[in-house]
User: What shape does this take?
Amino acid sequence: MLTKRIPVILLFPPLLRLLDDSARVFASSFGLLISEKAFQGLERRKGPGSDGDPGFAAAAAINHAAYPCAGSSRADRGGGYLLLASQGRHLLQHINYCMHRVKLLQHHGVKPILVFDGGFLPMKVDQETKRARKRKENLERAMEHEAAGNSVAAFDCYQKAVDISPSIAFELIKVLKQEKVDYVVAPYEADAQMTFLSMYKHVDAVITEDSDLIPFGCSRIIFKMDKFGQGVEFRSSLLEQNKDLDFTGFTKQMILEMCVFSGCDYLPSLPGMGLKRAHALIRKYKSHEKVTKHLRYSGVSIPPVYEESFKKAVWAFQHQRVYDPEKECIVHLSDVPQDIGEDLDFLGPWLPPDVVKGIAKGDLDPLTKGPFQVETSNSVLVVDKAFAMENSETIGRRKKLELPVQKNVLTNYFCLASIQAKRKFRAPKFTPKVLMKSSSPCSSNPDSDSTGSDEMPLSSATDQSQDFLLNSGHSNDKLPVTPSMEDRLTNRSNKCLGFPLHGSSVGKRCPSPLQESYQNAVNRKSHEHGTELKCTSLENKSVKRIVSTSHFFSENSLSEVANVDQNIVSCKNKEDGTVVLNDHPVSLGEPKPISFLETSIKKRKTAHPFDLETLPLRNVKSTPAIAGQGNKDENSKNFGRDISHVNDYSGIAEKSMEKFVSLMNSFRYSSSGSRASGLRAPLKDVRNTCSMRTNKAAVDFSEFSYKPRKNTARVVSSPSKFD
DNA sequence: CAACCGTAGAAAT
DNA sequence: TCTACGGTTG
Assistant: This one.
């Protein structure tokens, strides 16, 4: 998983752990934006390809990586073709996995937009070249091993020498084009791009594994979404209600500075400075200037460069260059301040509109800014062959497809907790009126009580993926498409957004037998999740672009899910007879009391000093969302604030949180238990003999000393550059 | 000085 | 995720 490879990112998951109230387990699938990182397992390693030649030119790397496969267990299949196919299998797994997620979201009426990483930010080039160097070393080592006849060791090194993610992205984009799923390749970082889309309400939420989205200021993030569509939701608006760390009075700026202090991609943290200390310091001194001042005053020697680097890191979070799909040009995430200086290249060099557009569409290599060097036809061939091979294998033996499993234990923990909670979860008594009209999946199906059917979604997920595979494999022979409301809707939304691609649209083919089996599986799953579907539809009131779910299911008249989902769509239509984006699907009446919050949050509920309005929202409106009324714009703008639906998840959330908190209680922050709280005076004037953690942005901390420890001397990196 | 805490590196996956 | 370590608290 990505976070294991990049220590810098590791620094933020602790923050995630500390979020309880604002990070809630949600039990329905929603959210509109998927980062490729959400599909973990997708990236074994982030960064350039071997030989310092980064990015998408990974096809060459595939050859290298594939080569040792011949010597491995797959040798029996023989030949170079197999080598590539073997790699293709990996590609396929990832693509398959991604598409499963896409379909899952689409099934729940969510329109995903996949966001890919683009070029490197100058600030990160150091890291990337280091990674590239390591890969090169591994490649050389692999060749040595190979020459020595040690194929196992060689294979190991070959694996380390390869960056497969660009090739996955490249192939995935092809599939996305075929499937008419929206995507966008960021000019630089996907995180910034996703934040941009979220900020300007092109999407309602971001699904990702990367907690960098928090310092970026993304207001609604869904972490660790599993294959059931469950995950942990983060809302910046609920941050104040967090218990483990007290964020009351924190502005977005403070959160950002806290994160930078504790270490980020753009700036390594000071030794001994972790999230807790950063939090305590920011809490007390409010701004990074005052914090550094205080640290210096306390005798900590901080290099003069630090403040400048700190500012740059903050700016990189705030003003990074991203692609504006509306204007079809490169823009800053937010307007740059005056004092930022002349040279803005550290935010990502400016790019001409045609280039950045080409990159966004996946037509241009974000690194070379030119056409891809990859031999497309070949790779297609390889992948197609791999598809065929995979299919014959999986269908023939009905072998369980090896989807990348979420290995993160925290994730698993959450999912487990959610599943456990789900077993005991009963339909909320409160049901939206509109939904009552149709046959509810819960009421009509005796199995809707999900007890004991946990394996089901698993297998259905597998089926689904396989089915998808099959379809993709034959995706050239597309069946006639009938124009529909959804199509119009789709076109419209695309037009207005200017995304590279089309609208979503899954179910435009006649259901194949496999598809039908998938449908059945989905239906069964839907029954199981009946109540959650209702929640989903509740959620959807704030979802900006709901497309095609009903279409998908309308071809399967048996689907009760379809009824529900169609209801949503029909509600969307009812205002003026045409499909309206951003409309409320259901009328909820009075906002419900928030039981979850009431029970688990004792903190005061004051006006939010956490200043959401500091964000450069284009359509800012402070009117609180009132469920069931208001115009469409308001709905989408205020989605982050209407938490009435929380009611429905309370059981799940409490259950999960209870376990979560007990597991994570080592992180408990109690204001009364003074030990952890408050500021610890750092050790004074002790020379920091240790080296810095290595793979971070290059900042010279040779002068710096802060809470040094003996054991830090064990750090491997030889600080030659600090000499 | 025991108990506890946060950080950081190693190990496992 | 696990664990060792140095540091703080009372």
Q: What stands out?
A: DSSP finds 28 helices and nine strands in chain A.
